[in-house]
Amino acid sequence: MERYELETFLALAEELHFSRTAERLHVSPGRVSQTIKTLERRIGGALFERSSRRVALTPVGRRLRDDLLPAYRQIQEAVASATAAYEGISGVLRVGFTAPWSSDLVLRAADAFSSRHPRCSVELKDVTYNAAIATLRDKDLDLVVAEPPVDEPGITVGPVVFSERRALVVPAAHPLAARETVSQEDFAALPLITAAGVSQVWRDAFFPRRTPQGRRIEQGPSAAGWQAVLTLVGAGKGATVATVRAGHYHARPDIAYVPFDDAPPVEYALMWRDAGETAGVQALVRTILEFAPRPDGGS
Q1: Where in the chain is the domain with CATH 3.40.190.10?
Q2: Which option is the CATH number for 3-85: 1.10.10.10, 2.30.30.280, 3.40.630.30, 1.10.443.10?
Q3: For residue 182, what are the β-bridge partners?
Q4: In the CATH scheme, what is the code of domain 89-163+267-291?
Q5: Is 216 strand, coil or helix?
Q6: What is the CATH number assigned to the segment(s) 166-263?
Q7: Exposure on the CB side of residue 48, measured as CA atoms within 13 A
Q8: Which of 112, 173, 291, 298 has the fewest Cβ atoms nearer than 10 Å?
Q9: Exposure string (b/e) for 54-84, b if CB count within 10 Å is 16 or more?
Q10: Per the database record, which ranges form the HTH lysR-type domain (predicted)?
């Protein structure tokens, strides 16, 4: 089997979509189709079931994928390790993340990165948004996973690695807590509790002053630290903005996380210093993107 046939087969086996596979491999869908047909003729039978609605692996195709994938990954790791010897990827890379649900992605990517670059280790740090940007700027971190936007000069906001549904966090006793969803107009129902010390561009993105229909949103107290913000919400001082998933990590009996039905999701992106984009950072970014969930919900 030729290398391009191997890569095409494994990519299609993962994507199960000819156009996405072609985009991933930087070739035309026709080239993908022709390569698979050639491989199927050589093997003697179909590897994929095709219809106008879906693409699926045949039993033989699944077995071939399962047999090939470990060897292919071993080859990739060997090449990456050899390349690292010439790129000089060594030392320590420090990665920060602002949300605990980012840690699984970062940990899995860090394990893969360390196996490919054994002379370089990855250290993880749980940080607040303010601390993430400050420590990145001050060279205490090399890479962060955080919520854009950022208006800090010298900071590159890279690819979005995943997103989470936005939620309004309200006191448990408030009528909105019993709702299945809320709209952005419901911002006007309670004072909005904000995070202290964030940049104006970030504040504008997460803590609006008016609803989409122009209703004024009362600005409530602010607090430094997420637990302090939640304490103010639980005490009935107002509402704040978070993600639905935050409710699984920061559940409290005095608050409720109610999903928005009309607000955009909260995005989490990779960020690094412009001057700190080393070969090691570039390699770690590529590795994290390998493990990031696909926009269609796959992984």
Answers
A1: 89-163+267-291, 166-263
A2: 1.10.10.10
A3: 260
A4: 3.40.190.10
A5: strand
A6: 3.40.190.10
A7: 25
A8: 298
A9: ebebeeebeebbeeeeeebeeeeeeebeeeb
A10: 1-58
Query: Tokens 């949103």 sit at which residue?
Result: 217
Q: 273: which residues sit within 8 A by CB, 6+ positions away?
A: 136, 137, 139, 142, 154, 155, 156
Local confidence pLDDT in tens for the 299 residues of the chain: 788 899 999 999 999 999 999 998 988 999 999 999 999 999 999 999 998 889 999 999 999 999 999 888 888 877 776 776 656 788 999 999 999 999 999 999 999 999 888 889 999 999 888 788 888 989 999 999 999 999 888 999 999 999 999 999 999 999 999 999 999 999 999 999 999 888 889 999 999 999 999 999 999 999 988 999 999 999 999 999 999 999 999 999 999 999 999 999 999 999 999 988 888 999 999 999 999 986 544 44
Strand pairing partners for 126?
A: 97
